[in-house]
Amino acid sequence: SADGGRNLNLDSVLMGLPMSDPTAWATAMNNLGMAPMGMTGQPLLPDFDPALGMMTGIPPINPMMPGLGIVPPPIPPDMPAAKEIIHCKSCTLFPPNPHLPPPATRERPPGCKTVFVGGLPENATEQIIMEVFEQCGEVIAIRKSKKNFCHIRFAEEFMVDKALYLSGYRIRLGSSTDKKDTGRLHVDFAQARDDLYEWECKQRMLAREERHRRRLQEERFRPPSPPPVVHYSDHECSVVAEKLKDDTKFLEAIQTLLTWIERGEVNRRTANNFYSMIQSANSHVRRLVNEKAAHEKEMEEAKEKFKLALSGILVQFEQIVAVYHSASKQKAWDHFTKAQRKNISVWCKQAE
């Protein structure tokens, strides 16, 4: 499931083993989000919750150099700068030199759940690899090569970030100093068809949910459809004919009659029924003409009323303006204060 896994020159430069305090491994594993294990394999922190582990929300890494796709992995703000020794049941992990730059990684593939692990000891077995990496999260599959590298697929994407934290660590099986029992881990993102397929399925599902949500939103604001028009029958015809004679139900009935005629319900058998309904509709013409004339008469009366009211308002306005003009003449104007004169001038302009 992990085609196109990268080939790496595994003869990395051998570095000295920086030894730190052997009692600090529990802190390091706690920082990794792993349940710290003793040499006997028993958890030392029985109440430790792996869900509180680090790096569960790191976004996909973008290449700083698009041509190379090589970037240093992100350093979470709450991750200790100096890595600690980690003791497992059958091996020990020694941290890289803190003064060296962080190991480079390729561009993160979308939906990546698979990592490439290089630099494994020649004598490392699948059980040892599982022991080291299952503490990062649930391992779905390990595909080990004859050479000293393998591919590991995790259940969730965030577990990949935990596995990448182990990149650069030096691994030693037991207490052996044999070259075949030591190695320097190199962990990197791997391209896997299964990861890409699952990611694409998830994207399609999210797109479907978004379309469904938008459709529901549109339907909520769409005006309700008009009720469907009943099919023509002799009984429905008699009902509509009665409604056509009723002024309050005429509008509903005339719409039904129009729909029936457009549907092609008029034939030799039903022609008389339709003629009588059209005749009933015609009888409303005189009523509508009379209503229109009554409304026009009301309109004319309203216009006359408006003209009378407006002329009365204008006469009063003219009288008010005449008062302002009289007050502005010399014999009255001189007796007002400066503020009073200013107000009278403003009022006069507004009224005009």
Principal-axes geometry comes out as: elongated
Query: What would the average pLDDT be, to the nearest integer?
Result: 79
Please identify the top-level CATH class of the domain at 86-192: Alpha Beta
The CATH architecture name of the domain at 86-192 reads 2-Layer Sandwich
Q: What Rg is obtained from the alpha carbons, in whole angstroms?
A: 45 Å
Q: Considering DSSP H and I runs of 4 or more, what fraction of the residues is helical?
A: 40-55%
Query: Which fold name fills CATH's third level, the topology of the domain at 86-192?
Result: Alpha-Beta Plaits
CATH superfamily of the domain at 86-192: RRM (RNA recognition motif) domain
Query: How much beta, percentage-wise?
Result: 5-15%
> Termini distance?
90 Å
Oligomer: single chain
Strand order of the largest sheet: 1-2-6-7
Indicate the structural class. Answer: alpha+beta
